[in-house]
Specification:
The chain is of the alpha/beta class. It has 2 domains: 72 residues, no CATH class; 194 residues, Vaccinia Virus protein VP39 (Rossmann fold, 3-Layer(aba) Sandwich), CATH 3.40.50. Helix content is 38%, strand content 20%. The chain contains 12 helices and 11 strands. The chain has a 7-stranded mixed beta sheet, sandwiched between helices. Strands 1-2 form a two-stranded antiparallel ribbon. Strand 6, helix 8 and strand 7 form a beta-alpha-beta unit. Helix 11 packs parallel to helix 12. The longest helix is centred in the first third of the chain and has 17 residues. The protein is elongated and about 65 Å long. The relative contact order is 0.11. Its EC number is 2.1.1.297.
């Protein structure tokens, strides 16, 4: 289907005005239009498409307006509207069954690559969600098999789709279950574990911005009273699955890293315990190795 350039330009201008009044990033409008029209970012920024007699669209302008209305009135994240999220250089399928991968989570892959020297073997991504971390690990460690676990069958469906579409289906093994449970008795001697577990304290989940609290899966957000219930499980069980000097690496909420360091120290099973910051300087990650 097609629409005139001037008609689409006017829709664009109206949407920008609404976005500004609703404190929605204007760039999200261009994202929607890029996905459904194929227009280049520069053309959208300059408005040069205004002069086109016709612009091809994958959906009608009326349907585009309905999607934009969901973004504005229901605060549906734009990633869910287009069912895509860009992470590292991957274009991932997403749905409300999985968390939208955040840019800061990319640092987990960089940390794993930086500290794996001398450690050979396979890796595990616990709580894989969309499969983003598993895909990053598969690319970073081409000789390794990546074991990806999630308790949600809906999330695993999305993760498998991403692995297949991006060419990593033969490198990632998927398991449904709670953290280490589906690997019990099957897997040991792993080179490393990476996880972005639920870490939001229960009472804070409803206070998150509407895009998160209303639409992203609470199963992947709610970390219990202090946000560290799942982290405690990962600390307790990891030594049974990781090789000596194997890497334990998690993402956390701001302010939680010192407590996680204390938990790791108290377990007596870890050494080289380190806190790492994200690109904004927030203490976001804790890395340790099995003693």
């Amino acid at each position: 289907m097609e629409v005139s350039g001037i008609e689409l330009w006017q829709w664009h201008q109206d949407a920008i005005a609404v976005a500004k009044s609703e404190n929605i990033p204007v760039g999200e409008i261009n994202w929607l239009l890029r996905e459904f029209t194929g227009l280049e970012a520069l053309s959208l920024r300059l408005g040069s498409f205004k002069g086109k007699p016709q612009v091809k669209m994958q959906i009608s302008l009326a349907d585009l307006s309905k999607l934009w209305e969901q973004r504005v009135t229901q605060r549906v994240p734009v990633q869910y509207l287009v069912q895509l999220s860009h992470w590292r250089h991957f274009c991932l399928t997403v749905s409300p069954a999985v968390l939208i991968p955040r840019p800061e989570t990319e640092c987990l892959i960089e940390l794993a690559m930086s500290y794996h020297s001398g450690i050979e073997g396979d890796w595990v991504d616990l709580g894989t969600g969309s499969g983003a971390i598993a895909l990053g690990l598969a690319e970073a460690f081409p000789q390794a098999t990546i074991h990806a676990v999630d308790v949600s069958p809906e999330a695993l469906t999305i993760a498998r789709q991403n692995a297949l579409r991006l060419g990593f289906a033969d490198r990632i093994e998927f398991y449904q279950g709670d953290w280490w449970q589906p690997l019990a008795g099957q897997i040991s001697g792993l080179a490393g574990m990476v996880a972005n577990p639920p870490y939001i304290p229960t009472q804070m989940v409803s206070q998150l911005q509407p895009e998160v609290a209303w639409h992203e899966p609470h199963l992947a957000l709610d970390g219990g009273v202090d946000g560290l219930d799942c982290v405690r499980q990962l600390i307790q069980s990891a030594p049974d699955y990781l090789q000596p000097r194997g890497i334990w690496l998690v993402e956390l909420m701001a302010g939680q890293a010192p407590m996680v360091v204390e938990l790791l120290q108290a377990s007596g099973a870890y050494l080289n315990i380190q806190i790492h910051t994200d690109l904004a300087g927030i203490e976001r990650f804790v890395l340790a190795q099995i003693d």
